[in-house]
């Protein structure tokens, strides 16, 4: 496939060829290699990001590539820059974990680790949030922490991705180039939104318990989560919000009446499904997903109050964590997942993130332990 283009179109030509992006779900794996253009701008109503997306797709198609793809990452705070990567073509395969090489990540030595949010700071924020709830200002908030690890050498992004998909075959695994030669990577259990022609689907999660290694104990934990009034309450904010936002665009839809339990490599979650038939005028997959973001699974209720609390109290910049990532084709079909159980690869440093939903009745110490358990999904990649 040629990458030589006319001088008139040089501004859209890749300086970044061979920056691989990968996105895997249970049903398919997408690999895209020939990066044509990267947009870095906020995806909010103040910027012309939609026009730029249309221009990029049109430009790539005019060069003779009929099936371009956008694979990108949107931050938690949409006032910060998103990264939208445009590829001229992509390969789509059916997952077959038996054929994947059974390696773990490069055997690097970890030199240092540093908490960006220490446990007392997190627990203090939880207590402040509970106070705000008791005075009626907020009903739910998701608070998070991050840890940075420094290794003696850089991990191979491709190996990280292979390990993630092998360890988490039911998750949405991703590896996406972002600014400054960094990558975000992860294994998210949470589908924010998929659109395939007029079919839309969302699988919100909220309410969690760490898994044990003992089967009987796991049965007890699942049962306790399923019947926990506090976790059902925490979950309800998310499904109510998704139903409210998406039903506006649907001719018909259905939503789970009671949640199921979704099992990941490290956690149990309460899980609901929303499915609908979109109206002909409904927005494309990315814009529909942006209407949902940030859901109460990563922010809180009411959204503006929770978002402001997070920005003022959390004590670090979430950036891509708890945003969304995924892909979209030029017809507006796509899959966007919540950027959780993820990390940021920056040369020989890796930053990992995890959060937990807080409602009245939450206990600060238990919530901290929940974030640590969630982080284990990523730590397993490095065999810690
Ligand atoms: C915010 C995270 O998880 C969300 C998704 C599932 C369950 C959650 C919870 O029970 O708190 C969170 O809302 C995270 O993993 O960092």
UniProtKB/TrEMBL annotation:
Leader peptide range in chain numbering: none
One GO MF term: isochorismate synthase activity
Keyword Repressor: no
Matches recorded under Pfam families: Chorismate_bind (PF00425)
Keyword terms, alphabetized: Isomerase
Isomerase listed as a keyword: yes
Region described as Disordered: spans on this chain: 196-220
Domain Chorismate-utilising enzyme C-terminal: 121-374
Catalytic activity: chorismate = isochorismate
UniProt-listed Gene3D superfamilies: Anthranilate synthase
EC number annotated for this UniProt entry: 5.4.4.2
Family under the similarity heading: Belongs to the isochorismate synthase family.
Protein name in UniProt: isochorismate synthase
């Amino acid at each position: 496939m040629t990458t030589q283009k006319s001088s008139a179109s040089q501004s859209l030509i890749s300086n970044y060829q061979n920056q691989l992006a990968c996105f895997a779900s249970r049903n398919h794996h997408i690999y895209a290699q020939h990066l044509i253009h990267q947009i870095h701008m906020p995806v909010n109503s103040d910027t012309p990001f939609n026009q730029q997306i249309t221009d990029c797709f049109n430009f790539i198609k005019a060069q003779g590539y009929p099936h371009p793809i956008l694979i990108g990452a949107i931050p938690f705070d949409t006032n910060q820059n998103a990264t939208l990567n445009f590829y001229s073509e992509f390969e789509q395969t059916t997952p077959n974990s038996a054929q994947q090489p059974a390696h773990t990540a490069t055997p690097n030595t970890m030199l240092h680790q540093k908490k960006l949010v220490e446990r007392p700071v997190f627990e203090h924020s939880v207590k402040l949030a509970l106070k705000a709830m008791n005075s009626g200002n907020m009903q739910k908030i998701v608070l998070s922490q991050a840890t940075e690890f420094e290794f003696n050498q850089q991990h191979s992004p491709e190996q990280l991705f292979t390990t993630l998909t092998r360890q988490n075959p039911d998750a949405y695994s991703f590896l996406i180039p972002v600014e400054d030669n960094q990558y975000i990577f992860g294994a998210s259990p949470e589908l924010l939104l998929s659109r395939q022609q007029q079919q839309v689907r969302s699988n919100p999660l909220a309410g969690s318990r760490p898994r044990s290694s003992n089967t009987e104990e796991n049965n007890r934990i699942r049962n306790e989560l399923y019947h926990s009034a506090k976790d059902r309450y925490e979950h309800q904010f998310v499904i109510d919000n998704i139903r409210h936002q998406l039903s506006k665009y649907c001719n018909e839809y259905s939503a789970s009446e009671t949640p199921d339990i979704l099992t990941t490599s490290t956690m149990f979650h309460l899980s609901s499904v929303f499915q609908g038939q979109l109206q002909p005028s409904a927005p494309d997959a990315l814009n529909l997903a942006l209407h949902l973001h940030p859901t109460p699974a990563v922010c809180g209720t009411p959204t503006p109050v929770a978002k402001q609390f997070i920005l003022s109290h959390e004590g670090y910049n979430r950036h891509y964590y708890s945003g969304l990532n995924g892909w979209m084709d030029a017809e507006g079909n796509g899959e966007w997942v919540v950027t959780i159980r993820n990390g940021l690869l920056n040369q020989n440093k890796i930053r990992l993130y995890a959060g937990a939903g807080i409602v009245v009745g939450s206990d600060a110490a238990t919530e901290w332990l929940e974030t640590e358990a969630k982080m284990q999904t990523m730590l397993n990649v490095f065999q810690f």
